[in-house]
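Hey, I was hoping to borrow your eyes for a little while. No rush at all, and the record is pasted right below.
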Amino acid sequence: MGERIADWSVSEVVVDVGNETGLLELWRHAPGQGGINPLPLPDRVVAGIAALRPRIARIFIQEFFRPYRAGGELHWELLDRYMDSFAATGARIVAAICLKPREIFGAIDQSKWRPDDAGEWQRLVRELVRRYSVERTLVTHWEIGNEADIGENGGCPYLIPEPADYHEYYTMTIAPILEAFPEARVGGPGAADVNAPLMEGFIRLCARYGTQLDFVSHHLYSDSPRQHAAGVERARSMLKEAGMQAETMVTEFSPGFEKTSTEDQAYEPRRAACVAASVLKMMEAGLDYSFHYHIWDQVCRPDDFEPFFERPEAIMVRHWNEVPHRFGLFGVNGRVRPQYFVYKMFAMMGDTRIAAHCEQRELRVLAAGGDDGINVMLINYSEMGHCDRVAAVKIAGLSYGDAELRLYRIDGAHRWTEDTLEMAPVEVRTTWTGEEFECHVAMPAGSVALLQIVRE
């Protein structure tokens, strides 16, 4: 913070409790996991995610789980343990299929996407879906592949840049999914770049042939909330131009890649502010689901990837061991990161959105009401220069009487208890509200705050 908060610029925030604008389904914005090693989520991480009351999460099922072995035997032990850990969080799953058994596909080659034995490939997919969507009602959405537009550089054993090839792979793979579980939601392509020819071409082919497409998905790692929103708008535009109706998902997003990677950077509060601001911008753009990548940072071991990757040490080891991106809500050793508390605040917000705005665009606001009061989320985030601010929050439409004011903030002070994962409030006080109420909130640059007015 600056030396004198009284010298900071003041930005007016207006909240109208009486103007309800619809449901606020923040549960649609959740974290995801996968692709680095086959370990299940640790108990501490499971408990932390369960505390967010998630309804959905996204994973990808990588070949290192080895469900298909020589002779066509199916082995689910590794994947069962992994899936059990997600079941314990309470979330249902969007699962990207990234399996590529050498016994079915032959040589290790990212450009080889057509199996040598299509029947065995479809049997594997059918049994996968039967196990996790039918016998266990865990996976509701199946995403076909992961960043096939860039292949191994995106952590996927498939490089399928041509829309016609991906459409063929997609139709071949969704057939056994829908046979085993007709209620499944299927989609893709999980593109690394929403503007890649793969994305638009695939959507147009689905429209031309009447291929079932329940959702389209892409990824983006960027510090710019505007870029995140633009990606959503582009996906929605492609669907509209093709005459297709499908949900939109950003199945991986995070702040952008940085040229250095230190433990200190993982705890910079501006990362949390970027995540929160990006979710709000994607919501404004009409996104149906987003998944922050990822829940838990992991160690990458080349031996896990050698059976199906051409260059595991050149890609995965560099990205996750030497200069790891440290995107996780939890670090490798389970230490919680500031971004976790963005999702904690989301879970505290309430279900009914109420009108709120701020003329200062770098100070974003989201408000919701519930049976016991209101919640106002404030985000001070700029893509360019950063400025400390005081938010003058003016609330209209409150009922008269005593209330408790609570203020939580994600900032450089790390205001949480590591053991319990509970936020420590900046302020708790009894107050009295009338038809109009005003309070001031210090918003250091790159911070997120949650203001609650709760009836006693």
Observations:
- The chain has eleven helices and 19 strands.
- The domain at 5-21+352-455 is CATH 2.60.40.1500 (Immunoglobulin-like).
- The longest strand covers residues 9-23.
